[in-house]
Amino acid sequence: MKFGLVIGSVVSTKKAGKLKGLKILVVNYLNENLERTSHTSACVDTVNAGEGDIVLLCSSSSARLTEQTKDAATDNTIIGIVDSVSHGNKIIYKKNSRS
């Protein structure tokens, strides 16, 4: 799994097969310190995330293992909205305490 920051959305009036009805968001991948990287992807949203949310992502064949994405043509799927991240006793991120 990877961390990402939702930075936008994709509007697509026509989608193939199992992608119909699924929201697609633009996600900027984050490193272990939750800092932005240069990698950005379009990701199928299975958890109703929104712009500004830090999310958990899975990719490759794992992206097709959720109930909504089974047999769908996706390589990146949002599978969770992050509430907090800590390392040892230090809180790196808390959802309602964005800096």
Automatic annotation (TrEMBL):
Pfam families assigned: EutN_CcmL
InterPro entries xref list: EutN_CcmL (IPR004992), EutN_CcmL_sf (IPR036677)
Highest taxon of source: Bacteria
PROSITE patterns per record: BMV
Gene Ontology cellular component list: bacterial microcompartment
Keyword set, alphabetical order: Bacterial microcompartment
Compartments where found: Bacterial microcompartment
Primary residence: other
PANTHER family listed in its UniProt record: BACTERIAL MICROCOMPARTMENT SHELL VERTEX PROTEIN EUTN (PTHR36539:SF1), ETHANOLAMINE UTILIZATION PROTEIN EUTN (PTHR36539)
Name listed for the protein in its UniProt record: Ethanolamine utilization protein EutN/carboxysome structural protein Ccml
The organism of origin for this protein: Melioribacter roseus (strain DSM 23840 / JCM 17771 / VKM B-2668 / P3M-2)
